[in-house]
Amino acid sequence: MIESSTEPRGARQYPGVRLPVVAFKASLTAAITAALIAALIAAPPPAFADDSAAVPRAKSSLPANGPLPARSAVAHKAAIASAYPLASQAGQEILAAGGNAFDAAVAVSAALAVVEPSSSGLGGGGFYLLHRQSDGYETMLDAREKAPGAASRDMYLDKAGNAIENASIAGALAAGIPGEPAAFDYLARKYGKLPLKQSLQPAIRLAREGFPLYARLQGGIRYKRDVLARSPDAAKAFLTADGAVPEVGAIIKQPDLAATLEAIANQGAQGFYAGRIAADLVAGVRADGGIWTLQDLAAYRVIERKPLIGEYHGARIVSASPPSSGGIAVLDALNILSGFDLHRYDSATRKHLVIEAMRRAYRDRAIYLGDPDFVKMPMAQLASKDYAAGQRSSIRTDKAMPSSLLPGIESEPVGMQTTHFSVLDADGNRVAATISVNLFFGTGYMPPKTGVLLNNTMDDFSTKPGRPNEFGLVGATANAIAPNKRSLSSMSPTFVETPKGMMIVGSPGGSYIISMVLLGTLNYLDGMNAADIVKYPHYHHQYLPDEVDYEQGALTDAEIKELQAMGHSLKVSGRQWGNMQVITWDYATGKVDAASDPRGEGVGLVY
Ligand code: DON
Q1: How far is the C-alpha of 438 from the C-alpha of 461, rounded, in Å?
Q2: How far is residue 554's CA from residue 537's CA, in Å, rounded to a whole number?
Q3: Does the annotation count 494 as an active-site position?
Q4: Furthest C-alpha separation in the chain
Q5: Which of 34-48, 174-188, 424-438 has the lowest mean pLDDT?
Q6: If you measure from the C-alpha of residue 389 to the centroid of ligand 1, how many angstroms do you get, rounded to a whole number?
Q7: In what side-by-side order are the strands of the sheet with 501-505?
Q8: Is the pLDDT of residue 366 over 70?
Q9: Relative to the CA of 3, which ligand 1 atom is closest?
């Protein structure tokens, strides 16, 4: 589960791919035309792939923007799936105390900050997709980190305009203003039933009394040992007194983190964004070369955004909106695929079509998307079926299209930083949350006396047009750094709903998140159960690099041969990706399943 090697990607550019300089102005008409031209450049295919006429479309009576009318009349159980058992249990404790899914989301997030500090925490941020059952209201809490007010477009470039190695991932200059503490306060006040103080208790207890170190976290500590050792407070929390990696089973206590959680419990967001802790955060950041100010912290707000809602063969897909690219990319890929009857094809062709849809959706991510408060994005067009039809028309069923033939940009893989959890309560309220400090332990730097590890989410900006970030993702001006801007994310918390039931899904995995959520959605709609969805072997294409990455077992030998014959370049991944947490609910029987990805050691609980 631990990323075994981090190839420095910053130095690479993708040959033959030029970025549009003014991202959102690149007109969609031009993109569609270009896609069509690209299709024509390729040898004329025996069968062009838009076979939409042949697709038996499920007749949908979906309200464009509301929940599906069908609902379970059968009582059902609550469920939580998260990346670590102690975090699922923290949520269970809060549900048992009378909390709803939103209170449980606070408890699970806060517990993950303690027991899975490599993945998310108070120093990070994320997206919480919410569904309130009483009135079907759906919203996304955008608790994404913000660039500090003193950030600037070229802050990670030297005078010659070259990227400074590691500047956007190491040290406090790489940290955005965190959003997670503000999300706790907001969730509890606006949607929860219990006081924040109560929902934070399990995490405070875990931080104060400690928890036994487990193998995956130990691996992460070993991987980041040198970085953690440079931050005295991080070393105190995660290394032994002589700077060694603790044994599995060693009790990890984080008293400073407990105190910070307690300040939030007592004072709400103010306990973090103002007062003693804010002062210590800013002092620590500035001592480490960062640029945070007290004003940056005081000004941080969670933003409620309308989730993206789409339809695929009768299923309603609700997913993260910008500054996440996840929802739009998943919907775009599904729109492209909706013109094919996937079941009509052999498995290699089916995978080829999914890969081609991924290629096109990731390209649009790179070109158009950024923080909606800063960038005008052609969202309606990107989500439209007509646009997808234009993209689909350049797909051949028998041949890969090189990414260089698509005008624009692209990406690469990831490890197991970041975390996702899913919650369903007995009333039907639900949460899909993907939260992060970006890379393992974020910057690894802990401002003294705070217990808070700083994120390095600034690396999710396009630090220079065309320069790939840690995930191999490139971008252009839409995702350029600007003061107070949120960087573009791939985190894709998603609800999939059909008249028969629903799924809550999401995963960590950097750029791979989008393709994993896409595959999870297709698998759910094909009738796969939660346990099989989370263990499904993944394949992935992110436009650039122009290759299909796949986990062992994702492609059979025959599929590999066929895909290669179509012109795909295939690369088997040496490691596994993702840590998907899925809950499914069958309306007819009331049956609820919760499954945690066997690649990790999380647990799905139903009670
Ligand atoms: O927001 C993003 O897209 C990234 N910061 C997520 C990082 C991630 O998933 C790392 N996981 N392996």
Answers
A1: 12
A2: 5
A3: no
A4: 69
A5: 34-48
A6: 30
A7: 308-312, 315-319, 494-498, 501-505, 581-586, 592-596
A8: yes
A9: 12
Spatial contact of 209 and 202, defined as CB atoms under 8 Å apart:
no
Of 260, 397, 418, 434, which residue is the catalytic one?
418
pTM: 0.88
Which atom of ligand 1 is nearest to 126's Cα?
1
pLDDT average, residue stretch 47-75? 42
Q: Is 88 helix (H, G, I), strand (E, B) or coil?
A: helix
The residue to mutate among 144, 418, 487, 597, having the most atoms of ligand 1 within 8 angstroms of its beta carbon, is 418
Q: What is the pLDDT of residue 11?
A: 34
175: CA distance to ligand 1 center in Å? 14
Give, as one character, the DSSP assignment of residue 14. Answer: -
- The pLDDT tens digits of the residues spanning 103-137 come to 999 999 999 999 999 999 999 999 999 999 999 99
To which residue do tokens 């070993």 refer? 222
Q: State which amino acid sits at residue 389.
A: A
Buried/exposed code over 39-55 (b: 16+ C-beta within 10 A; e: otherwise)? beeeeeeeeebbeeeeb
**Order of all β-strands in the sheet with 548-550:** 539-540, 548-550, 570-572
Long-range contacts from 276-281, C-beta under 8 angstroms, 24+ separation: 277/450, 277/452, 280/447, 280/448, 280/449, 280/450, 281/447, 281/450, 281/452
93 φ, ψ (degrees, to nearest 5): -60, -40
439 alpha carbon – ligand 1 mean position (Å) = 7
The pocket around ligand 1, CB under 6 angstroms, is made up of: 414-418, 436, 438, 457, 460, 489-491, 508-510, 513
**Both tokens of residue 434?**
């993907």
Q: Is 346 helix (H, G, I), strand (E, B) or coil?
A: coil
Q: Where residue 97 falls among pLDDT bands split at 50, 70, 90?
A: very high
Number of H helices, E strands in the chain: 20, 18
